[in-house]
Design brief:
Residues 569-595 are annotated as: Disordered. By secondary structure, the protein is largely without helices or strands. The protein is 8% helix and 11% strand. Among the domains are: 30-141, Ribonuclease Inhibitor (Leucine-rich repeat, LRR (right-handed beta-alpha superhelix), Alpha-Beta Horseshoe), CATH 3.80.10.10; 449-583, Alpha-Beta Horseshoe (Leucine-rich repeat, LRR (right-handed beta-alpha superhelix)), CATH 3.80.10.10. The protein has six helices and 23 strands. The radius of gyration is 33 Å and the shape is elongated. Residues 1-48 and 572-595 have low confidence and may be disordered. The chain binds 2-acetamido-2-deoxy-beta-D-glucopyranose (NAG) (7 copies).
Amino acid sequence: MHFTFQTLLPVLWLLVLCSSWIQGQKNEDSNEFLENSSELLDVESNSLAVPCPKKCTCSPEGIVDCGGFSLKEFPIDIPEMTNHLSLQNNQIEEIFPEELARLFRLETLNLQNNRLTSRGLPEEIFDQLENLNYLYLANNQLTVAPKLLPRSLISADFAANNLTKIYDLTFGQKPNLRSVYLHNNKLEDAGLPESMFNGSDNVEVLIMSSNFLKYVPKNLPRALYKLHLKNNKLEKIPKGAFSELSGLRELYLQNNKLTNEGMDNETFWKLSSLEYLDLSSNNLSHIPAGLPRNIVLLHLEKNAIKSIGADVLTQIKNLEYLLLHNNKLKARGIHQQAFQGLKKLHTVHLYNNQLEKIPSGLPRRVKTLMILHNQISEIGRNDFASTYFLEELNLSYNKITSSQIHREAFRKLRLLKSLDLSGNNLQTLPYGFPKNLQSLKLKVNEISSISKGTLSGMAKLQELYLSNNKLKSSSVYSNAWRDLTSLKTLDMAGNLLTSIPSDLPESLEYLYLQNNKITTVPEDAFASTPNIKGIYLRFNKIAFNAVKESTFHRLKHLQVLDIEGNFEFSDPLKNGSDEDMEEEEEEEEQEVEEN
Ligand SMILES: *[C@@H]1O[C@H](CO)[C@@H](O)[C@H](O)[C@H]1NC(C)=O
Ligand SMILES: *[C@@H]1O[C@H](CO)[C@@H](O)[C@H](O)[C@H]1NC(C)=O
Ligand SMILES: *[C@@H]1O[C@H](CO)[C@@H](O)[C@H](O)[C@H]1NC(C)=O
Ligand SMILES: *[C@@H]1O[C@H](CO)[C@@H](O)[C@H](O)[C@H]1NC(C)=O
Ligand SMILES: *[C@@H]1O[C@H](CO)[C@@H](O)[C@H](O)[C@H]1NC(C)=O
Ligand SMILES: *[C@@H]1O[C@H](CO)[C@@H](O)[C@H](O)[C@H]1NC(C)=O
Ligand SMILES: *[C@@H]1O[C@H](CO)[C@@H](O)[C@H](O)[C@H]1NC(C)=O
């Protein structure tokens, strides 16, 4: 049976009224349970003569809310007919058995965020609460779980306590139990009974993240669809631990100490419904064999993976997202056929590895390829010859030089929209960019010139980032922007420009030219860009009398004109050392020569 939100809707509504189950979900791994739900109950509060403890709100339906009043003690006069009792966000340390025993009709008991210790919780009472479905005890100070909880239980939340021990009948023998929250406790393997869920075959959600487990617990309930075990000390997944969990869809194992020795080729194989597997931040040196075919999202980042074999991924026919960043992959460690037949695989993260070149045999349907922060120095003619569907390619922070990019390397990338080559060793703008690019980033290189033809035909380009390069006004081809009829953003900040680029496209909206050596702003500098919204000229060398107000008059859309940090250069008495002045004179001479 599958647990869906539709089937649970009526239950959910009830819970919204009297507790904060939803919030418990939302905050799965956090300790905040501060919501104040008493407003939700105001509707009926003053309507009739239901006896009600001071400050609390009570409804004729048996809902009593005493949440958030800093109560130090369990209220003595709670009506016996109460079905749903909320005492969350108080300071209760202790509950006496007789206080709770009266309330045998309780279906929901919310004691979340109090100061209950195990000694202060009368566990012998629980087997008398024969109707109890929902028990919320998160954010208390319990050190051992109650020995026996009612058989009627549906959901139990013990997150964020200091639990070290669970007993056979804490969660065992509860045929209706669906969800158990135990994250943020201090559970070690020895604190769990051999068969923690014996007779509780319908548990679907088990959250045990942030404990101290070394082994995956044995005898997990077969109905599980969500199992969270992240932030433990898992070293080993015992043989068969997952072999009965054919309904499991979401398995979190990240941030543990798993190695390949701690699992085998059958560990995951029977998880035929698994869609989401997170093995990130472990100590895997290769991808485990025998991953099941329905995984959609596979997290393997932050391990020590060095290679990808021919047949570890190919059976995962539904794989869409493969995250392998922050590993130790080299291109030659990735088998040519590693991604073969993965027709749904559209997003691959390979950043922060040790790739020395583009791996061969990239998945054919990849749309997003993140391959930044590697050691790639060249792009060969056929590296992207079969990735026709690529839309976003991030190659930033590698070691690519202009001459090592083959002129035809990108010829097949007709769908490529975004290319990032920032932080490489490009000296000139390379030839052969895909014509349909919308965004091209070339920041932080050593580009000193833009030659004729490099930007030709790129009529869809909307953003061009060339900041922090070595561009000079004289080395930008004079018709460079001619074809860029969609260009909205041009960023040339942090270069060596001495004048404002001319013949900018009419579509331009934002022009970034800060930190250059521009000295003048001619009156017609923006004549070709009537749509411009932002002009950034901060920290150039423009003299006060070198800018006329009329230059900007006709720019109806102009919102930002940032020209700070310029004018002091016109006044030798203000800051600026002698050196600065000399430099400025040189620049001015150069400009004259260029003109
Ligand atoms: C909870 O809600 C009540 C009624 O709206 C309000 O008086 C009280 O200040 C709230 N408490 C907190 C902690 O927000
Ligand atoms: C859990 O135990 C630690 C000491 O081991 C203590 O500092 C902490 O306050 C305890 N937390 C709770 C919720 O009782
Ligand atoms: C599991 O429960 C059954 C009764 O439902 C009992 O016979 C069996 O001994 C229990 N097994 C364990 C390991 O506790
Ligand atoms: C696991 O490996 C063993 C021996 O190497 C092999 O017999 C078995 O078929 C493999 N299982 C899977 C699921 O690949
Ligand atoms: C990872 O595993 C290797 C052996 O496979 C071991 O030498 C190393 O200490 C482990 N690293 C961590 C952080 O556990
Ligand atoms: C490429 O990666 C860098 C670094 O994370 C990031 O800043 C940049 O936005 C990415 N480029 C694109 C086009 O997403
Ligand atoms: C220039 O001098 C002014 C005061 O004369 C000072 O406030 C400003 O910080 C100085 N700027 C620089 C860049 O040194």
